[in-house]
Specification:
Elements lengths: L2 E4 L5 H12 L3 E6 L2 H10 L6 E5 L5 H15 L4 E4 L17 H26 L2 E5 L12 H20 L5 E7 L21 H12 L9 E4 L7
Parallel strand pairs: 1-2, 1-4, 2-3, 4-5, 5-6, 6-7
Helix pairs in contact: 1-6, 3-4, 4-5
Family: Belongs to the short-chain dehydrogenases/reductases (SDR) family.
InterPro entries: NAD(P)-bd_dom_sf, SDR_fam
Pfam family, one: adh_short
Length: about 230
């Protein structure tokens, strides 16, 4: 029995990953800020006993710790922690609106760090895995993009964390998707023209990382839709 906690798990890639893992017999805890959205997601899954929806802000240290504790209390262990919660603003650092930046930076950088801190002990006990959902934007610079800079920070965080926990038997995987057709693009003016991945395709990569055999640590998975040049 594998137990996975996913932040931002009520929609998009997080929800697709939760559904896929549930279908494969996993126990899954999902967090999100919106209780109603979490409840709607649980209903679409049939409210299974293997799903634990938790209302929690990924940028709140106490809420993240409580979510980890709740998952362990409910299912008895934790095998994987997936930092999926994310925020986006299309602003440039050159002429954008700073009022739009704070939530994005906290969600995309502080949030994953808090999940790592809160879950490390439980994952050491199971020799589990941390999965950080980054972006191609964290591998390829984009002019003026503060969003891209937050994903570059996540790329660095993944390797820094790997070096800190690999001796304890904990794996760390950065999943770096290209363009994905989700509500994420709503804040950026809509999905760009051209090929896109589905949330389900990215979820397959996350599930693959979680399912690596003991002793194997896959560290970076870059996944683009065929035809995306950048």
């Amino acid at each position: 029995m594998t137990v996975t906690l996913i932040t931002g798990g009520s929609s998009g890639v997080g929800a697709a990953t939760a559904r896929l893992l549930l279908e494969r017999g996993h126990r899954v805890a999902v967090t999100g800020r919106d209780r109603d959205r979490l409840d709607r997601f649980a209903r679409t899954c049939g409210n299974p006993g293997a799903l634990l929806p938790i209302a929690a802000d990924a940028t709140d240290p106490e809420a993240v710790r409580a979510a980890v504790d709740a998952a362990v209390a409910r299912f008895g262990r934790l095998d994987a922690a997936v930092a999926n919660a994310g925020s986006a603003a299309s602003d440039s650092v050159v002429d954008g609106d700073p009022a739009r930046w704070r939530d994005m930076v906290l969600t995309n950088v502080l949030g994953p760090a808090l999940l790592i801190r809160a879950s490390a002990g439980a994952l050491k006990a199971t020799r589990g895995r941390i999965v950080l959902v980054g972006s191609v934007a964290g591998l390829v610079p984009a002019p003026g993009s503060l969003y891209g800079a937050t994903k570059w920070a996540l790329t660095g965080l993944a390797e820094n964390t790997r070096r800190a926990v690999t001796g304890d038997g904990v794996g760390v995987t950065l999943i770096a998707p290209g363009r994905v057709e989700t509500a994420f693009w709503d804040a950026l003016g809509g999905v760009p023209d051209g090929p896109v991945l589905t949330a389900g395709q990215v979820a397959e990569s996350i599930a693959w990382a979680i399912g690596q055999p003991p002793g194997v640590d896959v560290n970076t998975v870059t996944i683009r839709p065929l035809g995306q040049p950048v």
